[in-house]
Amino acid sequence: MTDPELRQLVRRFSAEEASRVKAAFQSAAPFPHVVIDDFFTEDFFAQLQRDFPARGSAGYDRFCREDGGEIGTNYANGEVASFPPAFRTLDALIASTAFRQLVTQLTGIEALEYDATYFGGGIRESASGTFLPPHLDFNHHPQTHYHRRMNLLFYLNDEWDALWGGNLQVHRDPNVHPGNTSLVQSYAPLSNRCLVFETSEFSWHGFDRLVLPEGRTRRAFTVYYYTQHRPNEAQVKFHNTEYVEPPLPEHLRPGHVLTEADVALLHEAIARRDGRIRMLYALRMQMEEKMRNFTLYALRTAGHRALARIRRSLG
Questions:
Q1: Does residue 206 contact residue 131 with C-beta atoms inside 8 Å?
Q2: Fewer beta carbons under 10 A from the terminal one: N or C of the chain?
Q3: How high is the pLDDT of residue 47?
Q4: Domain map (residue ranges) of the chain
């Protein structure tokens, strides 16, 4: 994709504006991030809204609940072959050298690599009741093992009411600052807004619970970029996405009479905990199988070497 083609899809950034965005990104607390409004050109944004997959349409069957992969209220599609036309164009944009150079210009992070698999990313839609607790994203690509360095979140909602929730929330470490004390910033998923943040070992984020009118959803497209190396990479350990579930509401105290809403919330919290436990058990079983296969291979290899040494000693 050439620079002229890029300018048909993304609004023009003057050198002065790009410098301001970069400064805001690098100085943001508690980790580098920046919000850019009116990111796409009006025509291209209208195309993305028009082509967003409709419920019940062909291929609209990709649902997941976070890392467990269970059917839930989050639609996630990272299969480029199934993307509608406008999203194929968006994919070409994201993959282009010109766009990656623009992202580098706006953030200062260089040598960004496009992920053709959209692992964990792509077209996203969340229904009412959904929320995403504070979490750290997985930090290495599972196939290339490159370092995950950058998240771009494009919001594709035509309008948004503050009462609907769904704000992208920037947190300090919730393990150290429990409850609401970890929250630092909150950004509404407004029409044609792009939120960029560096993926790191302290880029805790999530979004608050959606309370939407009938027929409304939260629509977005997520892009993750990688680099082959990163600063202090020897100190960065591999990890999967790490969640910290929110505490129970303050009103659930001794003597409080539970309402139907309270009971529903408690059932939800237990179900989320059980889902996390099942996921961890599954990961442990996978690891145990890998370790078993590795041990058997090592024993067989050691046995063959010992037999060869005996044969050599016997001449």
A1: yes
A2: C
A3: 96
A4: 3-247, 256-315
According to DSSP, the β-strands at 218-227 and 147-155 are: antiparallel
- pLDDT score for 271: 85
Instruction: Give the pLDDT mean for 236-258.
Output: 89
- One-character DSSP codes across 112-152: -B--TT-TT-EEEEE-TT--EEEEEPP-B-TTT-PEEEEEE
Do residues 134 and 30 lie in contact, with contact meaning Cβ atoms separated by under 8 Å?
no
Q: Quick check: 279 pLDDT over 90?
A: no
**Residue 228 in contact with residue 111, Cβ under 8 Å?**
yes
The arithmetic mean of pLDDT across residues 82-104, rounded, is: 96
103, 196 Cβ separation under 8 angstroms: yes
Give residue 288's identity as a one-letter amino acid code: E
Model pLDDT, residue 66:
54
Q: Does domain 3-247 sit in CATH 2.60.120.620?
A: yes
pLDDT band at 76 (very low <50, low <70, confident <90, very high): confident
Cα distances (Å, whole numbers) of residue 279 to 68, 121, 241, 266: 6, 20, 12, 20
- The three-point CA angle 222-231-78 to 5° equals 20
Assigned token pair, 248: 């129970």
Sheet with 63-64, strands from edge to edge, namely 33-37, 193-198, 147-155, 218-227, 122-126, 74-77, 63-64
The whole-angstrom separation of Cα 265 and Cα 97 is: 46
Query: Distances from the Cα of 300 to the Cαs of 98, 295, 305, in angstroms?
Result: 51, 9, 9
Ramachandran category for residue 110: left, alpha or beta (phi over 0 → left; psi -120 to 50 → alpha): beta
Mean pLDDT score across all residues of the chain: 89
Strand order in the sheet with 204-207: 183-187, 168-171, 204-207, 132-136, 242-243
Torsion-angle region of residue 68: left (phi > 0), alpha (psi -120 to 50) or beta? Answer: alpha
Range list of β-strands (E), the chain: 33-37, 63-64, 74-77, 122-126, 132-136, 147-155, 168-171, 183-187, 193-198, 204-207, 218-227, 242-243
